[in-house]
């Protein structure tokens, strides 16, 4: 007999590549997301790496050092299809937007959330600002910032 969903431990059924990780989703206009996809393809980067770079760039103007390493790790992928834009059944602030999602170490996500709360903003706004900065300045690199490099 299958245990009820309520009795399963947290993370039950989650692939091991996502153990201890939390997801961040940033909702963007389809044009911006399309330009980020093109840039990722041209620079041979994954969208996970692009999201990390967006978040790091969004943290800079707020005076916070970069948090997220821009690295490619093989992750379990459920589907290769792109997400549909949010429809009428979603909140008005997300209608017509596409999600850019990535899985990061839980402690990093928690730190980003608490910093955003301290500053009276959201991780969504930080990600949007970072995407804007990456798209407006082609000299900004999609790579792990030197301060996050490990020896």
Quick summary of this structure?
The protein is an alpha+beta fold and 151 residues long. Helices cover 36% and strands 11% of the residues. Strands 1-2 form a two-stranded antiparallel sheet.
Describe the structure.
This protein is of the alpha+beta class. It has one domain. The protein is built from four helices and two strands; from the N terminus they run E-H-H-E-H-H. A two-stranded antiparallel sheet has the order 1-2. Helix 2 crosses helix 4 (123-136). The longest helix has 14 residues, at 106-119. The radius of gyration is 16 Å and the shape is globular. The protein starts with 20 loop residues before the first strand and ends in a 15-residue tail after the last helix. Keywords: Plasmid.
Task: Please list the strands of the largest sheet in the order they lie side by side.
Answer: 1-2
Total count of helical runs of at least 4 residues? 4
Count of all domains: 1
- Cα-atom Rg, whole angstroms? 16 Å
Element order: H for helix, E for strand:
EHHEHH
- Main β-sheet description: 2 strands, antiparallel
Please provide the count of β strands: 2
Indicate the low-confidence ranges by residue numbers: none
Q: What fraction of the residues are assigned to beta strands by DSSP?
A: 5-15%
List the helices and strands and how they pair.
Elements: E1 21-28, H1 30-42, H2 47-59, E2 98-105, H3 106-119, H4 123-136
Antiparallel strand pairs: 1-2
């Amino acid at each position: 007999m299958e245990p009820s969903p309520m009795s399963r431990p947290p993370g039950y059924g989650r692939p091991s590549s996502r153990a201890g990780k939390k997801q961040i989703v940033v909702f963007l206009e389809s044009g911006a997301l399309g330009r980020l996809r093109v840039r990722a393809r041209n620079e041979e980067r994954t969208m996970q790496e692009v999201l990390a770079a967006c978040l790091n760039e969004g943290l800079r103007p707020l005076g916070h050092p970069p948090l997220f390493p821009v690295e490619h790790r093989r992750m379990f992928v459920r589907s290769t299809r792109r997400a549909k834009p949010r429809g009428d059944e979603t909140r008005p602030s997300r209608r017509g937007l596409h999600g850019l999602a990535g899985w990061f170490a839980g402690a990093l996500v928690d730190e980003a959330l608490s910093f955003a709360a301290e500053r009276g903003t959201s991780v969504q706004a930080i990600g949007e600002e970072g995407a804007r900065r990456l798209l407006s300045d082609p000299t900004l690199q999609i790579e792990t910032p030197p301060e996050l490099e490990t020896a």
